[in-house]
Amino acid sequence: MTSEVSSVGTTATGTSSGSTGSTSLTSDFDTFIKLLTAQATHQDPLEPMDGTEYASQLAEFSMVEQQVLTNDNLSTVQAQLNLGNMASLTGWVGMEVRAATSAQFDGSTPIVVAPNPAASSDDVTLVVRDEEGDEVNRITLPVSADPYEWDGTNFEGDTMAAGAYSFVVESMMNGEVIMSEVAEVYVDVHETQMQGSEVILITETGNPILATSVTALRDPNAEGEEEIAT
Questions:
Q1: pLDDT score, position 4
Q2: Taking the model in full, what pTM does it have?
């Protein structure tokens, strides 16, 4: 289950943070003035403080005050930019994105896997795992980035039950694995969320993926795909 992140909640948090910072600054400034007044009141009349020292202390506090206020303003601007990024990506909901994640098998429709084996490998294997992480099939692939359609079958050739499956491409050379990485697949986007400063996409399997990890985007009802610059 995923927890929904709303723009209202995020905006409120940013506002509260800025308000807290301003209140803290006001309190600190009042305390500073009281201390400075007490210092002047109880100074030795025979050796009074130099007026330039008062001015120096006030200038230093003012600089710190301005820096804190600037940081608060930058945080507010960053939060607004993040919300803008999430809003712009809400158009991806209902679309298919390609990323290194698990895919939902419906029990009949093949899943298109985009392998990217090491160019120096002499043997490539696609390892298919179920939701529990158990290996259900191992398929020999050519040393190529050409898409491969997994038909949903296991070692025995039986069709697996509907569910989420992940795909790992093992690149081998001289019988040793030189690279092992999760293959990219197309998945449906069901939701966008903000987590910190990152926009997260919630896929059909419930898995969260970074929007920045997406390498292609396509409309499931149209032909063709749009490559995403990385």
A1: 41
A2: 0.59
